[in-house]
Design brief:
Keywords: Transferase
Protein name: Putative Acetyltransferase
Number of strands: 7
Strand order of the largest sheet: 1-2-3-4-5-7-6
Strand content: 25-35%
InterPro entries: Acyl_CoA_acyltransferase, GNAT_dom, NAT_camello-type
Radius of gyration: 15 Å
Largest sheet: 7 strands, mixed
Structural class: alpha+beta
Number of helices: 5
GO molecular function: N-acetyltransferase activity
Shape: globular
CATH topology: Aminopeptidase
Helix content: 25-40%
Pfam family, one: Acetyltransf_1
Number of domains: 1
C-alpha cells in the first residue's frame, strides 16, 4: 500500500474528522457513544489544525487516517511538558487498517519531534483497549510510563489512560 503522509488540507478537515470519530465509535472507545462530549473534539479538525500539526495518511488520493502532533507542549497537549512533543488522536479508517498507515503516521510524528528544536522526548496517552496502537508504539521503541498514567474524567474511575514515551 503506497501511503503518503502530509499536512492535512482544509478541504479534508471534514473527512478526517469523520474517520477519527468513526474509528473511536466503531472500536467502542467512547464511553458515552454518540453522546460522548469527546466526539466533538475528534471531529473538530479545524480547531486541532489551528493549535497543532495535523498529519494525514493518503492512499490513492484519499485520506485514510490522521494524527495530531503537538510540538513542545503546545495548547493541545494533555501530558507533554517542556522539551516534549505529544501524539494525539491517531486514527485509521477501518478499511485501511493493517496496511501500515498507522505506523507511517507515528513515524512521521517521531521525525517531526526530532526536527523540533529542544525536543528530547515524544509522549502519548492511549486507552487500555487500543492494542493495535500499542503494538505500533512498542515496535517503534516507545516504552510504557505508568507513573504518568492519568484519568481525563476523574469521577469515572475506569477511564485511566496508559502513557508511553520515546526518548529521542
Amino acid at each position: 500500500m503506497d501511503i503518503v503522509i502530509r499536512q492535512v488540507e482544509p478541504d479534508e478537515y471534514e473527512a478526517l474528522g469523520e474517520i477519527t470519530a468513526q474509528a473511536y465509535l466503531q472500536d467502542g472507545l467512547l464511553d458515552f457513544g454518540e453522546s460522548d462530549e469527546y466526539l466533538g473534539e475528534l471531529k473538530d479538525v479545524a480547531k486541532r489544525a489551528a493549535a497543532a500539526e495535523v498529519l494525514v495518511a493518503v492512499h490513492g488520493g484519499r485520506v485514510v487516517g490522521g494524527v495530531t502532533f503537538v510540538p513542545s507542549g503546545g495548547p493541545m497537549a494533555d501530558i507533554a511538558g517542556p522539551g516534549e512533543a505529544e501524539i494525539r488522536m491517531l486514527a485509521v479508517s477501518r478499511e485501511a487498517r493493517g496496511r501500515g498507515a498507522g505506523e507511517a503516521l507515528v513515524r512521521a510524528c517521531v521525525e517531526e519531534a526530532r526536527a523540533t528544536d529542544g525536543c528530547v522526548r515524544i509522549v502519548l496517552s492511549s486507552q487500555r483497549t487500543m492494542h493495535s496502537a500499542h503494538r505500533i508504539y512498542e515496535r517503534l521503541g516507545f516504552v510504557r510510563t505508568p507513573e504518568r498514567d492519568w484519568n481525563p474524567i476523574p469521577h469515572l474511575s475506569d477511564i485511566t489512560l496508559l502513557t508511553y514515551e520515546l526518548t529521542l
